[in-house]
What does this fold into?
Amino acid sequence: MNVSDVLYGAYERRLLRQLDTSRLPRHVGAIIDGNRRWAKDARQDLESGYQAGAAKVDEFLDWCHELGVGTVTFWVLSTDNLQRPAGELASILDAVETLVDRLAADGRWRLTLMGSLELLPAEAAGRLKSSADGTAGVDGMQVNICVGYGGRQELTDAIRSLLLEKAAAGCDLEQVARTLEVDHIAEHLYTKGQPDPDLVIRTSGEQRLSGFLLWQSVHSEFYFCDALWPAFRRVDLLRAMRSYASRERRFGT
It folds into this structure.
C-alpha cells in the first residue's frame, strides 16, 4: 500500500465520522454521466466505457446499502440516447442488459425498470423485463433502472394512464378536469408508491437535470460532481452525503 492509499483511507474514515446518519437521504437518484468521456480519456473503446460505467453501479449500490439508503434510482439510458448510432446504442444496451442480469442475480436488490421499454428492441426489452421481474419478491433495497427514460415522456405516460383509467370508470373530460388533483397524477408516475428522491447526484461536471424525475425532484437537493461516472469513488459519495446532511431542507417554503 502506497502513501496516497493510506492518506485516501484516512480521509474517507474522517468523512464517515463527520456524517450525521440521522440526516442521510432515504432515496438517492443518480444521473450517471461521463462514460464516453472516460473511455476517450482512457484511450479505450466506447463499449469499455459503458461496461466500466455499469460496473460502477454495483459499487455505488454497496456504498448506499452500507449507509442505510432505502431506494436508489439510476438513469442509464435516455430517450435521446436512443437516437445514437446503431453500433453505439447496441453497446449501451449490452452494458445495461449485463448490469440488470448481474443485479438480479445478486439477490439483495428489488429491481424496477422505468421508461418506455416499447422504444427498445423487443428482444432487449424482453430480457430486461424478465430479469427485473425475477426480483419482485426480494426484501431489500429498491433499485430503479431508468432505461428509455425521459421526464417529459413519463409525465405524458402518467396523464395518458390517468385519462384511460377515468374513461374506463365512465368519467368524461369535464369531470376529470373538475376533480383533478396533484396526487392523482403522482399515482400514475413510474415511481408510484415510492418516496421522492431526497438527493440527486449528477457526475461529469454537468449542472443540469436534463429531465430526470421532473415531477419527483421538485423538493430534491442536488449535488453535482466533476468525476466522470466510471471514476466515481466512495469518497465522492460521502462528500455528497455530507453536503446533503448539512443543508436545511425547505421543501419550497
Remarks:
- Strands lie at 27-31, 71-78, 109-114, 141-149, 199-202, 221-224.
- The chain has nine helices and six strands.
